[in-house]
Design goal:
six-stranded antiparallel sheet, Alpha-Beta Plaits, alpha+beta, 178 residues, 24% strand
């Protein structure tokens, strides 16, 4: 029997009504056997990072309690993406516009690097659209690889942006009630 594990996920959408899609996807995750919803950040409107698109993203970070193994959780996330119309161009190595993107950021304190899944998420520290909502949800969460808290990571990235060591990342905090 598997023990309950805390998992952190990133949610995003830049096609359609992103805020509604992210919120509905979150609620859908709560209906998946083995997944319990445990907290969701506010939505953030963010400019695309690492891709060219005229569509901004709605991003959020959620905390789950799961009774699924990491790859089973990943399969559940991918299934929910598909339910919301996510398609993947297997021939493209570039990021693409998407109706829904669900990323597994942390699964307990597991460190893994397989072709299917890398934990913790390898690009998280360079993405304000992950760190800002994550810091809102759980600022003192400690990344067990770097040893930094999420709020420290967000502050460090903002400083890198200010001094020009990282590209600007436009982000606007929002509300689910808007």
């Amino acid at each position: 029997m598997i023990e309950e594990v805390k998992a952190i996920i990133g949610l995003g959408s830049n096609l359609g009504n992103g805020r509604a899609i992210v919120r509905e996807a979150w609620n859908t995750l709560g209906t998946v056997p083995g997944i319990a919803l445990d907290g969701l950040s506010s939505p953030y409107l963010t400019a695309p990072v690492g891709m060219t698109s005229r569509h901004w993203f709605t991003n959020a970070v959620g905390r789950l309690r799961v009774l699924l193994l990491p790859l089973d959780l990943l399969k559940a996330l991918l299934a929910v993406e598909t339910t919301f119309g996510r398609t993947r161009d297997c021939k493209s190595f570039a990021y693409q516009d998407r109706s829904l993107d669900l990323d597994l950021l942390f699964y307990g304190k597991l460190v893994m690097d397989t072709p299917e899944l890398t934990l913790p998420h390898p690009r998280m520290a360079n993405r304000l659209f992950v760190l800002a909502p994550f810091a809102e949800l759980e600022a003192d969460f400690r990344d067990y690889v770097s040893g930094m808290t999420i709020s420290e990571m967000a502050k460090a990235l903002r400083q890198e942006i200010i001094v020009g060591e990282s590209k600007n990342q436009e982000i606007i905090a929002g509300s689910w009630d808007e």
